[in-house]
Amino acid sequence: MSLRPSSSPVESHADNRPLREIDMSNLYVYNIPSSMNTVKLVDLFLPFGKITHARVVEQANNSSKGYEFVKFADSHCAAKAVTLMNGALIEGETIVVRVAGLSSSVPSSVSQHSSQPTNLSPEINKCRLYITNLPQSMTADKLVSLFMPFGQIDRVVMKVECSFVLYADVNSAAKALKHRDGYLIEGKSLVVKGSEPCPMNAVDSASQVASS
User: Fold this and answer.
1) Contact 130, 199 (CB under 8 A)
2) Which of 31, 97, 98, 99 is most buried by its number of CB atoms within 10 A?
């Protein structure tokens, strides 16, 4: 297993317009003991699922700075880790575990939904929803909270022209489309589609990040 630092959740492209990406499988852990190292970190979180990247941020003397990053193979494992490890007592320290890039106020896990299929919209042939007409005050935290009730979210990307939410399954995307298209928030009526409403260059840039 290769243990390498995860990429930054904030990236930019050639057009220099900011792109905010939240990977729901990437966790930020802080208030960890100074004795924590990468091997101990992996042992601590491995019971929740396959880990693809792990890093303890160290000081010059190789002791921990008090925070670390853990990336799981999928967002379901990460959600379990947040639920069971946030607030856990490790070597006398109460650790804090959350999705990297989100504040602690964002729910750590989604409500459970029936796996029975719903009447899927013909627009949806994959798990990605495109959202436009967002209020200017919209943040990644708010966007995740807005779409999290409908199922497990794997990734969120926010861009100037549009944003998109990638669900773990099509059924969750269908529910979100049904309940959030036309949803009124801060005087704005959200436009949520299963197809690509954004300018083609914006969609291409976002798609490249999501598939990387």
Assistant:
1) no
2) 99
Which residues are registered as beta bridge partners of 99?
Answer: 27
81: domain CATH number is: 3.30.70.330
Query: Cβ-count burial of 82 within 10 angstroms (0-12 exposed, 13-18 middle, 19+ buried)?
Result: buried
Closest residue by Cα to residue 65 from 107, 89, 18, 33: 33
Which residues touch 85 (CB under 8 Å, ≥6 apart)?
29, 44, 45, 48, 95, 97
Task: Determine the pLDDT at residue 20.
Answer: 76
| Residue 154 neighbours by CB under 8 Å, 6+ apart | 23, 24, 25, 74, 75, 127, 166, 167, 168
Burial class (CB in 10 A: 0-12, 13-18, 19+), 91: exposed
User: Which residues constitute the domain of residue 90?
Assistant: 25-99
pLDDT band at 103 (very low <50, low <70, confident <90, very high): confident
- Cα 85 from Cα 45, distance rounded (Å): 8
Least confident of 147-151, 190-194, 201-205: 201-205
How far apart are alpha carbons 194 and 173 in whole angstroms? 8
Higher-confidence position of 35 and 10: 35
CA-to-CA dists, residue 89 to 28, 84, 140, 188, angstroms:
16, 11, 29, 43
Which H/E stretch holds residue 203?
helix 200-211
Q: What is the pTM of this model?
A: 0.67
